[in-house]
Amino acid sequence: MPKALRWWVLVLGLVALPGAWALPDPAGGVGGSGATPDGIGGTGIHPGGIGGTGIHPGGIGGTGIQPGGIGGTGITALGVIQRFGSIYVNGQEYALSPQTRYSVDGAAGTAKDLHLGDRVTVQAAADGRAIAQDVRVEHAVIGRVTEVDAAKRQLTILGETIQAGKTTPVTVHDSDQSLSFTALKAGDVVSISGLDRGNGHWLATAIRRLYPADTAPARVPLLLRGQVDALYPSQNTLEVGATKLKVNGALLQPLRVGQSVVVRGTYTDGQARVESVTPAALAAQDVGNRVSLVGYLARGDNGWTTHGVSLVEGSHTLYENGDAADMRAGSMVAVEGRVQAPGVVDAERVIFSVNPMDFDFPIIPRMPVLPPVFHHPEIERPEFGPPEIEPLVERPELPDND
């Protein structure tokens, strides 16, 4: 066979071989790069996930995202129920689902136990929107009213001073009937939701009358949240805020000054009887979780605290309506940040002079998050030009005339 013709046969044979060149596979794969209808070899993409980035069906490895929750990137909110339609806390809407769990002062509850102005802790996951997993109602004080100052809108309960605002809701337990503040009388049994101002003073965000004075049963509940200010073991006495309480000596043994506690008991025949003193649940525990909270600042051992949570400030902290110099005991602040360690929040934003019933965190524009770019290996294809063909001129053999 002539040399040029052999070259043509070789070229045509190579082109005809299946898979000889990495051309797009009509079935959805890319020969040589490992791409298949369900994934891309070498990049780790597989059905429902992206190898190497940890994304897998129902979750995101490495970030802890799992179906129904975001470990390490969940949300903890400590604040007041501002309105309904789901619930709004610190300006954020939290959707309530059939799986949402509820508690009231540690006892199991339902969505019907949520009321405007209730001080709550919400644990939520973000799945396109914030979905509440746990909603804990935590009353500040429950007990008998010993004094009412209608002009100042103040109540005294268990020695604690409760300050109500002009718009603080006052309602009747079970019926949600609204009351005027002046309808409250000494002897009434009430529950107070509110924010701790320190030194036995509270800002009430909701007041519910459990029993009027003339119909209260002989045995009614008692509850007080606060910080242990003093212990008197020889007198079997505990001081929380402005209140001194007689307790069983055994209850004092595990306690320490400065500890946040919940005191529970009853009034029996008008006398307060303490039945338990337990450490308050740590508000922000899950490292990496987003946190929003509103409350009064207090000076702790290692800096500023609120709700028993230590706040860590830094050069990255943004201040609104004030600056770092305005961080002082008794200042009302809203804080947004991330859990750095159990009970410790890295404060990214601090807003001063907020109304806990009517505020939200202004949106800070963020850089857009771009989807990952996958680099596919370049497929080198040899360039083919037309083969060089030497013209073959056949000359007829002429007969020899000789």
Structure description:
- This protein is mainly beta and 402 residues long.
- The chain folds into 4 domains: 24-53 and 372-393, no CATH class; 79-137, no CATH class; 141-279, Copper binding periplasmic protein CusF (OB fold (Dihydrolipoamide Acetyltransferase, E2P)); 290-352, no CATH class.
- Helix content is 4%, strand content 44%.
- It is built from 2 helices and 33 strands.
- The chain has helices at 3-16, 249-252; strands at residues 35-36, 39-40, 45-46, 49-50, 55-56, 59-60, 65-66, 69-70, 75-84, 87-89, 92-94, 101-104, 107-108, 119-126, 130-137, 141-149, 154-157, 160-164, 170-172, 189-198, 201-211, 219-232, 237-240, 243-246, 260-268, 271-279, 290-296, 298-300, 303-306, 309-312, 318-320, 332-341, 344-352.
- Strands 9, 10, 11, 12, 13, 14, 15, 27, 28, 29, 30, 31, 32 and 33 form a 14-stranded mixed sheet that branches. The protein has a 5-stranded mixed β-barrel with strand order 16-17-18-21-20.
- A hairpin with a 3-residue loop joins strand 14 and strand 15 (130-137).
- The protein is globular and about 140 Å long.
- The model is unreliable at 7-71 and 365-369 (pLDDT under 50).
- Residues 392-402 have a biased composition (Basic and acidic residues).
- It comes from Acidithiobacillus ferridurans.
- Residues 1-22 form the signal peptide.
